[in-house]
Amino acid sequence: MESTFSPRRAELLGATLRRLVRRGARAHIANLLGKTRPEDVALQLHGLTPAHQVLVFRILTAEYPESAGVVLTELEPPQRRAILEELDEQEIAELLEKMAVDDAVALVGELPSEVQEQVLELVDLSELEDVRAQLVYQDDTAGRIMDPEYLSIHSEATVGEAIAHIQASRDADNVFYLYVVDASGHLMGVTSLRQLLLEPPERRIAEVMARSIIKVHTDTDQEEVARLASRYDLLAIPVTDSSNRLKGIVTVDDIIDVVKEEATEDFLKMVGTTDTELVYQEKSIRVAGIRLPWLLLNLVGLAAAGTLMENFQVQMADTLFLLAFAPVVMGMSGNIGSQTSTIAVRGLATGQVGLGEGRARHFLWQQVKIGAVLGLACALLAAVGAAGRELLFGAAGGSQVSVAAFATVVGVSLFLSIVIASFNGVGIPLLFQRFGIDPAVAAGPLVTTFNDITGIVIYFGLANLLIHQLVR
Fold first, then answer.
1. What are phi and psi of 379, to 5 degrees?
2. What is the largest CA-CA distance in the chain?
3. Which DSSP string do the residues of 91-133 spell out, in sequence order?
4. Model pTM?
5. Strand 236-240 with 216-217, pairing
6. Partners of 36 in the β-ladder
7. Which of 9, 92, 200, 314 has its CA 20 to 30 A from that of 298?
8. Tell me: the pLDDT tens digits for 105-120?
9. Backbone φ, ψ for residue 283 (5° rounding)
């Protein structure tokens, strides 16, 4: 099979595949798929319509069943679910029989519960015993994504015996580390292949193994697994049960998938949608229904802001000139809040921002100080702009407006709005995290709408306090 790492090759492959699909040239499609690596086939499926994706995948399963499972695991979850919806139970079962256990678990986990049982009944139970065992773990945990096939050895074995054991395990994939266990399967230590090669063959494993082990529990969230792997530069992390028995390992390929999946999920939540939209991208009404709740929330918030503006205007006659800078205050506070909340959500996701040991307070205070600096710079510019506008154009309706008072209202309200928006941008995600709610939800329309309303209240509230100085 040819590699298609070159962007030019990838472009030509995609164009060729689309042309052959439009022509319905099944034999030519099969020939092209046979010459292309499964990972590159998965990449090119993105450029096809959902119907054409299913067509190509069916050709792949018929002609190259070994590659079909790899392609399926390389697809994004929404694409994978869309294709699985078009396959019958027998087709899915045949795919499972040729997949690695951890990949098969991920695939079965995305099926509806009733379909899961039908599929598992069609497959030889001896082949999928590990799959059934892993399905008992919760979604998005280490137990669900771990690979139960790993290399381990008794602590009393010698280095020579360990090397012979590795050589005899020809079917083992992802051999990064050799895990050391006792007679009951309890994890005692770990050693690298490099360490084994550097030690005398007669030396006992217990003497060369590292006893300080970075490990996770079967119930550990997959995000925490990815954070640990990144922090300690690990290629695999052992997974143990509550009794410290080694149950499996999470390998680097699964860790990369977790990072991509979690990052995509967070970004989609931050703009008020989910990855379900990608599954139904051809169904406009379904996609609109996914986006609608957040937009309605934004609509309510903006309507509330408009109502506040109207009430303030009723209370303060001859102050239409204030409307000129209302969008400035709302927009700037909303933008600063979005920036700060994005940084906060990302920091929480990567572990750089935590809730303990004063780290959250330190981060909050740091962002408020940054907001104060930005607010001061923007407030000075806005105040000068407000003063210049009044000097050049004057107030509407012939009212006598104090230039100094107007500049003060604009500058001070913008400064306060930006500082408070910075506080909200960090505080709301931290609050969500504290109560076990995904903080990414707070980084989208929620923070923006809240800061819009806050900005309006500050702007017109301050103008109301200084009304006698503003209009004479």
1. -65, -40
2. 99
3. HHHHHHTTS-HHHHHHHHHTS-HHHHHHHHHHS-TTTSHHHHH
4. 0.60
5. parallel
6. 2
7. 314
8. 777 777 777 677 777 7
9. -110, 95
